[in-house]
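To close the chapter, one final illustration. This time we ask the reader to focus less on the individual chains and more on the assembly as a whole: which components sit near each other, and how the overall shape emerges from the parts.
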Amino acid sequence: MDGGNHIQIEVLPSAGSPRIPYLEDKLVIVIDVLRATSTMVTALANGCQAIIPALTPEEALEKRLTLPGSLLGGERHALPIEGFDLGNSPFDYVPEKVGGKRIVMTTTNGTRAIRDASAAPLIWMASFLNMQSIVLAILRQFQTDCKFQGIVVFCAGTEERFDLPDTLCAGMMIEALGTNVVLNDLGEAARILYRSSENQLVDMIRNSAHGQRLMSLGLERDLVYCSTPNILPIIPVLEEGEIVWLTKG
Amino acid sequence: MDGGNHIQIEVLPSAGSPRIPYLEDKLVIVIDVLRATSTMVTALANGCQAIIPALTPEEALEKRLTLPGSLLGGERHALPIEGFDLGNSPFDYVPEKVGGKRIVMTTTNGTRAIRDASAAPLIWMASFLNMQSIVLAILRQFQTDCKFQGIVVFCAGTEERFDLPDTLCAGMMIEALGTNVVLNDLGEAARILYRSSENQLVDMIRNSAHGQRLMSLGLERDLVYCSTPNILPIIPVLEEGEIVWLTKG
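The assembled structure is written out below.
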């Protein structure tokens, strides 16, 4: 990349932004470490055929009617939804349950961020679990004759406006992309935060507001799993309203 | 403070927050390093009697009518407003101009943040220039029988949602308050960012989005001045709609 074009990266702190930037020429990366995008990556790794994002439980129920044999998954306030087949824990999405299935999924922030990104021509889901694959795919996309004018990262996070786990994950991505990047203030902050925390990622995530909420619900196992970098070589991509395994980078 | 109560600190990333927290029992600190709060501190240090914040240039003109002898100050998009006596540069607010005067002031984000904070019983303006005085006054407030349930920091910053100079300034405040603090995610991030940047504050601020805008307007002198810690022992406080020099901490 040296001497080539820089990659413009704009990191935005949460879903439901009042000011969504122009996305028509951007690659959008959605990050919701705890736990929506981590769970999507895991579901696809375990043989799930596709994830259909829905904004509300009601919309999820409606969509399921049109998809016989599909499952319902998701959460509200980190808790499973009554009558749904699966929660938002990656450990719910085991091969025996999700293999070969479509899953209609709704989460408080993750699916809203995906909806907010809908104007973009390409949308990927990132987490610590699949970060290496995301970084390699970005570098391939921006190597030559790239049709994108840059990357917008949506940190879907919590209902609050700044989420430390998602920002650290964005920082890991930026750090791995090397020096050939142009960052907005939050992107620069994400890189510094990741560099300062690289050796204590799990502790940082455990002490974050969202981490503390999961701990109080007895979900430390989910938190530790979701904080593990580079164990799943999968890029979930949004294609015609369904999140599927990207086969070409 | 050891063994005493912790100070709860919630840092919020910008003015016009869609979710303003409950402020009725909070001390609010407004930070707009580039340049509103830095300029207010400077104006008071140079003998200005009071600053009256106004949301818009029109409101400023109306308020001035009721205050004979007062001056008009402020900016839109970092530029002076036509017909106003003073811009938003601290170097405009010299003793010969502002000594003994009231100034009606409107800035893009700073005065909006002050308005957003209006439910709070106590509102102070902070910048690098007066940080040591702010920290000492906070420690005095929270030493014994404190009537506040914590501190909310508004980083008024740019029109964007995360401003690196303001976040670094909040981080300096948190770091100086010591370990007896409980932080939200952005507060924790601010502390880490400040620790990582302590020896290169001016460079960090120069490279931020807002810093780059000031540089492009030839305002590097303002930027360097506003990045200088602890040179003015003044706490601007909002009292009955006017910002004045706090005489008791």
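The interface with chain B takes residues 12-13, 17-19, 160-164, 167, 184-186, 188-189, 192-193, 195-197, 207-210 of chain A (CB under 8 Å). The first strand of chain A starts at residue 7 and ends at 12. With these observations in hand, you are ready for the problems at the end of the chapter.
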